[in-house]
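Quick one, tokens below:
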């Protein structure tokens, strides 16, 4: 973001010496900012398209990991599509991508590396991609050795650690149990809440609050969409922030934090 400033300053100097150079540099700066914003918008749109495609391709590949796609796995994929509130045309595209992923010879590594390259260093998007895959697998009946092996490859390509993956499992477990069966034993729920925030039970109040704020900022739905998360998948981010907030509130209640 310097070409516009330089060109503006040179032209301004030729016209009005130093005052002209200052004015030209400022105009060039405005040009650089506008160009960067246009480039960012175009890049986000490209990432959204690739994120959508790869999400359902990998979903199909994970479902076929044990050699066959069960009716429960198909239903899980349809449930996710319904949660995302996809349009009819997007549902057709998602089904097509799912079928591509479960086909023999699907290039999982190349596909994941391509998405990782487009996402770049945006860890929040990488985490959300893995979370969607894990959530769908849990909906289809849980992890088996074959599906876990695929998800570990996904984590490796996305730069997600085993600890972060375990944290997601706790978060989704808490989310699903709250939705399906209400509250569980208080001690277990509290342990789960600490795992969701990624802090030990011995952490100070300040450390708990810092972890909570970091996760809420990292998973803000609008920020994720601006970085490339398809708008249809915003619900996953919203559910994640609700679970993070519920975990924090449970810890605060147990500690008497107001």
């Amino acid at each position: 973001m310097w070409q516009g400033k330089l060109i503006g300053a040179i032209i301004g100097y030729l016209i009005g010496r130093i005052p002209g150079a200052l004015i030209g540099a400022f105009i060039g700066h405005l040009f650089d900012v506008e160009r960067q914003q246009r480039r960012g918008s175009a890049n986000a749109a490209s990432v959204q398209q690739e994120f959508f495609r790869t999400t359902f391709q990998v979903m199909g590949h994970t479902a076929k990991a044990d050699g066959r796609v069960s009716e429960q796995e198909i239903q899980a994929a349809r449930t996710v599509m319904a949660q995302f509130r996809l349009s009819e045309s997007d549902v057709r595209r998602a089904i097509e991508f799912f079928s591509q992923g479960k086909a023999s010879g699907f290039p999982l590594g190349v596909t994941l590396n391509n998405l990782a390259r487009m996402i770049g260093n945006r860890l929040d998007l990488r985490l959300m991609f893995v979370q969607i895959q894990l959530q769908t697998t849990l909906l289809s009946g849980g992890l088996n050795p074959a599906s876990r092996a695929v998800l570990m490859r996904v984590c490796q390509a996305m730069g997600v650690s085993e600890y972060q993956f375990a944290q997601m499992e706790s978060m989704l477990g808490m989310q699903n149990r709250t939705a399906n069966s209400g509250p569980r034993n208080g001690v277990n729920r509290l342990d789960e809440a600490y795992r969701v925030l990624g802090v030990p039970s011995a952490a100070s109040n300040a450390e708990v609050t810092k972890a909570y704020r970091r996760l809420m900022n990292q998973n803000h739905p609008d920020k994720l969409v601006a970085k490339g998360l398809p708008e249809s998948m915003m619900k996953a981010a919203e559910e994640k922030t609700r679970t993070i907030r519920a975990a924090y509130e449970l810890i605060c209640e147990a500690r008497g934090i107001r």
